[in-house]
Structure prediction request, 282 residues.
Amino acid sequence: MAWLGALAIGLSLGLLGSGGSILTVPVLVYLVGEGEKVAIAESLAIVGLIAAVGSLRYARSGRVRWRAVALFGLPGMVGSVLGASAAAYLSGSAQLILFAIVMLLAAGWMLRPPRGLRSPPNQRQAQTPPDTDPREEPPRRAAAMMRDGLAVGALTGLVGVGGGFLIVPALALLAGLPMLTAVGTSLTIIAMQSASGFLRHHQVLAERGLTVNLPLIATFAVLGVLGSLAGHHLGQRLDARLPQHQLRRGFAAFLLIMATVILVQRLELFSASGAAISFLLP
Prediction:
């Protein structure tokens, strides 16, 4: 079941362009049996490796905007380190509760209809930029991109998610990137901030006498990359039969169920503990 979960992580990334990292922590905690804090650190390594491999295909086709990578990704690396440092002051249960809340936010974003479908027909073409020229100069909104990069990076470091469901819309809106370019740029940014967050988490774990399972990380990363490739090809076949927004809605429903299960389980543990401070602090 754990190996199937690893394939599902990559499959989601290949089909939807985001969401795979949301699955990584639950798979590691509930199927592999890793502790919460170790699972979050391992999730960052797995997600970062899968994203790095996936970004190569976009980079070769010129669909990575390096200016956006610098403006969004470098502050994101700083934010990821800060988030990982803050995680040292929270218990694993508190991190999982925050993680479940992020899952609910991701589900809400995925349930929204595509931007073009929300607009009047005569405005859709104007609002949706063509994805034919990845070299088109984006609007200069450097300050907003750096601010959002710092915030998304902090979330990545704190709860172990890649943040693609936040990065792609931010790049499309703030940098004016076409969708495929936004996805390729997002994968590069995810790899950067996951790497910095993992290194900080590794230091925090070492201080507590804990360590990550490197063979497990490598196996999950390989299976995730294979799943991502399969998801990419499957998505091309399903696109005409089952629009992507329907796939996203199905995945969002799954996220709602998973988030509810995590919250119910953690609240039961909270009730059993009877002490909020000891439950929330390490």
User: Anything to note?
Assistant: The chain has 13 helices and no strands. The radius of gyration is 18 Å. The longest helix spans residues 244-273.
